[in-house]
Design goal:
2 domains; Beta-Lactamase
């Protein structure tokens, strides 16, 4: 049986001060009575300034009403569960810069002097939010591209693609090719060319270093698409931890370019 252990106020305060989350305590009217080091650093206020402020002074005007509702719930001991409901808001710093945050804890505490206080902890999600926006923008560009773009996992299965990629293989949308490798998508045998050739090139691309790529020129010969010339740029994709997670594939059709090139060569011969 474990020995009972009690945290002292000093130990709790030291832990909170060193936390990477923005943490504050407020009285039942929303007046700030404590903010941790991270809160002050992120929002740019001093200890003295913070003690003269309320919770509402740093919340974006567009989010005030919703945050007041959450504050009431916490006061009533009915704090929303962050694991079930994402509670995001925007703080405004002293420099009037927005800071996107997500609440990961909020509770009603009774102090040793009998006073009730509200303690809340927030994660700074500005970087995550910007990354999500960037992904959204890039996804829009990829979807509108005439180039055929796909991402394949380590098993060479397509897990994301634009409709242009699907239409190249005679499918109506990207949903029709998810979970399939290129041989399956084009209806080729994986044990004989050209299916085997495509799979080997995808596997070869996974062996490359970050930043390197493989250029592959080929001719697609399908019932719907005869003699379509393509050039494919295949490259390894790594995550933020530098672990290989799959292969990127960008295909551009070069049929018209090849035809023009052929006509030019023929004209020069006459």
């Amino acid at each position: 049986m474990e020995k009972p252990f009690k945290f002292t106020e000093r130990q709790c305060r030291e832990f909170i001060e060193k936390a990477s989350e923005l943490i504050f305590c407020a009285d039942m009217d929303g007046n700030l009575i404590y903010v941790n080091k991270c809160w002050k650093a992120k929002l740019g206020y001093s200890e003295k300034e913070a003690c003269l402020m309320t919770v509402w002074d740093v919340i974006h005007p567009d989010h005030l009403e919703r945050c007041r509702q959450y504050f009431v719930l916490i006061k009533e001991g009915k704090a929303p569960d962050p694991e079930k409901e994402s509670i995001e808001t925007t703080f405004i710093s002293k420099a009037r810069e927005p800071l996107k945050v997500e609440m990961n804890a909020g509770c009603l505490l009774e102090c040793c002097n009998g006073q009730n206080v509200i303690m809340c902890s927030f994660n700074d999600i500005s970087a995550r939010s910007k990354a999500e926006e960037r992904i959204t923008y890039l996804a829009g560009l990829v979807e509108q591209s005439d180039d055929m773009i796909a991402f394949k996992d380590l098993d060479l299965k397509v897990v994301a693609a634009n409709d242009s990629y699907a239409k190249l293989s005679g499918h109506s949308s990207a949903r029709d090719i998810l979970g399939k490798n290129c041989a399956e998508i084009f209806g080729f045998s994986p044990d004989a060319d050209p299916g085997k050739f495509y799979l080997e090139r995808d596997m070869e691309a996974q062996q490359l270093k970050p930043g390197d790529y493989l250029l592959v020129e080929n001719i697609i010969d399908l019932p719907k698409f005869k003699d379509r010339h393509i050039i494919s740029k295949k490259f390894p994709v790594y995550n933020s931890a530098s672990n290989l997670i799959g292969t990127g594939d960008i295909i551009r059709e070069t049929t018209e370019f090849k035809k023009t090139q052929t006509r030019l060569c023929e004209s020069q011969q006459h």
